[in-house]
């Protein structure tokens, strides 16, 4: 609850464009053609599903209510955490046909929402908004909120994504002001490349305690049936990142990540190495990650027919810090 960053939503993960083959020979050739690479932000989804364990502390309760096949409401309450302030969030979602509406409101008065519309096969329209009260600097430090120099968190954004036969293009504009352009393309059945340009003149970055005017990313990825390697080179912030993920068995996955900062920065380490394992069973899963910063993070999730229990631990030996959390999710699995 300490961060008011807009929650990422994934209403549509892939779009398929079908083409009829004129003859059998062409059909055989097309079976080896390149596929759509998906979204730019999902290039590391396989590795992140193992590496990105989000720790939480204290107690967390989430109740999902499916009021009808198209409309749902979620209540989330958290307390007793060393990582974030206690809080309450109510979220709602409505879907029908080719569009989706989502929104959430927390106890600080932060209202967020999104509209997603599949205009026609291959083209997706996304609109997001955020309305927030002004927050004093003392409250910012206490709640660990993301506040720009004007103490204004409200914005309106719109994005268009086009999913072509072997490429994905995206453009996003926001009122803060903010501009994002990205392009991702498959160059071989097992390889893709892409780039992303961001002009965030008015958007505040809490990690660097400053505003980024321009940011450029170049990415590449090689995928095999049981493993994948991705490379990311970024300018402002300047860093190099490589991720490797491998499916050891149908139930065990391994992932590693190496991040090297190309410039000196007092807010982040020069380099960071992480390795993680995930063991997935029929009704439970266990994840653990260790990093060169000293963090040891683990998560255990147990599912039943009507609820999901989650245990989380974060231990940092050099800093003598630890956090333990227990979460319970009840109701429909949205």
From TrEMBL:
<keyword id="KW-0813">Transport</keyword>
<dbReference type="InterPro" id="IPR027246">
    <property type="entry name" value="Porin_Euk/Tom40"/>
</dbReference>
<dbReference type="InterPro" id="IPR023614">
    <property type="entry name" value="Porin_dom_sf"/>
</dbReference>
<keyword id="KW-0472">Membrane</keyword>
<feature type="compositionally biased region" description="Polar residues">
    <location>
        <begin position="1"/>
        <end position="21"/>
    </location>
</feature>
<keyword id="KW-0812">Transmembrane</keyword>
<dbReference type="Pfam" id="PF01459">
    <property type="entry name" value="Porin_3"/>
</dbReference>
<keyword id="KW-0653">Protein transport</keyword>
<comment type="similarity">
    <text>Belongs to the Tom40 family.</text>
</comment>
<feature type="region of interest" description="Disordered">
    <location>
        <begin position="1"/>
        <end position="37"/>
    </location>
</feature>
<dbReference type="GO" id="GO:0030150">
    <property type="term" value="P:protein import into mitochondrial matrix"/>
</dbReference>
<keyword id="KW-1134">Transmembrane beta strand</keyword>
<dbReference type="GO" id="GO:0008320">
    <property type="term" value="F:protein transmembrane transporter activity"/>
</dbReference>
<keyword id="KW-0675">Receptor</keyword>
<keyword id="KW-0496">Mitochondrion</keyword>
<feature type="compositionally biased region" description="Basic and acidic residues">
    <location>
        <begin position="24"/>
        <end position="37"/>
    </location>
</feature>
<protein>
    <submittedName>
        <fullName>Import receptor subunit tom40</fullName>
    </submittedName>
</protein>
<dbReference type="GO" id="GO:0005741">
    <property type="term" value="C:mitochondrial outer membrane"/>
</dbReference>
<dbReference type="InterPro" id="IPR037930">
    <property type="entry name" value="Tom40"/>
</dbReference>
<keyword id="KW-1000">Mitochondrion outer membrane</keyword>
